[in-house]
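User: For my dataset I need records formatted as: sequence, then structure tokens, nothing else. Please produce one.
Assistant:
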Amino acid sequence: MRSEMGHEAGKSAPQGMIVEKDVLVTMRDGVRISLRIYRPQAPGRYPALFAASPYQHEFNDVPAYPLFLWREIGPVEWYVSQGYAYVHADVRGSGRSEGSFGFMDRTEQLDYVELIAWMCRQDWCNGKVGGIGQSYYAVAQWHMAADNPPGLACIVPYDGLIDQYRCSNYHGGIFCSYRPGWYIALLANNQHRLAGRAGRARMTADLVGDIVEHALDDGWWKERSPFERLGDIKVPVLSIGHWGKMGLHLRGNILGYEQVRAPKKLVVTGALNVHQAHHMFDQVEFHDKELLPFYDRHLKGIDNGVMDGPPVRIFVRNTGKFREEPEWPLQRAQYTPFYLRQGPSGSVTSLNDGGLSREQPAADEPVTSYSYPDWEWRNGVVAVVDGRPDPMRRVLTFTSAPLDADMEVTGPIVLKLYAASDQIDTQFIVKLAEQHPQDPAAGANGEQPASTIVSKGWLKASHREKDAKRSTDIRPFYTHADPQPLSPGEVYQFDIEVLPVSYVFRKGHRIRLEIVNGDSPLTDTVFSHPYHPTQVGTDTIHHDAAHASCILLPVVG
């Protein structure tokens, strides 16, 4: 490999920092990868932080605002002031790099390995490299660590999935609209410039077509998913996730931590959405507390005790506090069934207003059926009443009585659902919510109670086949490889993975379960699922003694 310098090194750089722009490093096949390098001005050898993405290092100087969600590099100048070099690569086929974009294919993964080797040979590097960055940058870190290249000493995947199929593109086998929109924006950001001037040549990969074509978890997805190789990782891992990133990265950070056998730590924050998670990663204070000690220990050899003590630290939602734990999942959690019941709960307006109870149903408890699409659905499955969206009005709900005491739920969740359809396929989109107390007068006036979505789960009925080796009692794992049609009218047991949580349901509040066959951009933003024209029929949920549908909640005393 060889490198070439583009713009003048250090030009317009902040005091004490050298910026090398458009450094081109030649890969094994002659393709040149473009880097931007930031490093201390003082002579010496420094550990390098490596960030790789298709988001174009030429835009690193835009303001670190949540408006620019792809700017996920963190406080670069601050890291340089702490004695680190920072290397940002435009991945193959993006930005100023040559070649064709492969969306984390094996070719791109091998580029990471070569670039790490190149960094270690530079006279400004001490021979140790750590991964850094959010989202795409984080997934890249899982990949580079699975290859265990010499010189890579640690990774910190912040907000990074491990399974492209299950975590992002096909939740429970259900197609999600997020990634096609992401790619269209990526194409425009790479190609468009001011006053009609051109950026890079068009990125020709047909990623949207590939996603639609690969509707099952085949080799195309496995090549791009670090999940298959997490057991190969040998370097220390600090996995940082967020409870609010349910449609994209949360599952990856938690399951990634579980699967890695190297020295590891897990942090899950209380960030509730994309913007909060992004803002957190831009803050020097967060890096100073959470990331820098980990880098200092593994890249500089500083014995700061960061690996001592409990390996897990989670934010317990609804308490405002973090808590340390000796393991994940928590062994002391007691899995408690809450059974779906006929109701009514008398607390919410929905298709059925069903109940949710610790008491098992009777043998003769009636079924709950609904037909779809519903004539009141306006934006996905959201109804509109007096010009205002009402997400609960035309979905199935099962709501508990007010809780007698606070109840903490921490860990993976499973919904055991007995259901039938008059179609050969259907799908279940599940939401677990805390329903807040409501003034009786407001309810009588037709207002819905306030609520907080706590977790979500998804499953396409024809994808119900489990992977026997990977499934556990608290996390079903589906193969998504051999869809099997339903026999209309036959009752099936569907074990649905509901994403892990740490949440305290408050005394006087209710637990609510929502079930329907779709969602909406109004409630699920960019992580929603388009309603397909084949979704016309009637589904029936059974909740009698012989078909005791229930959600298993990991209750912590």
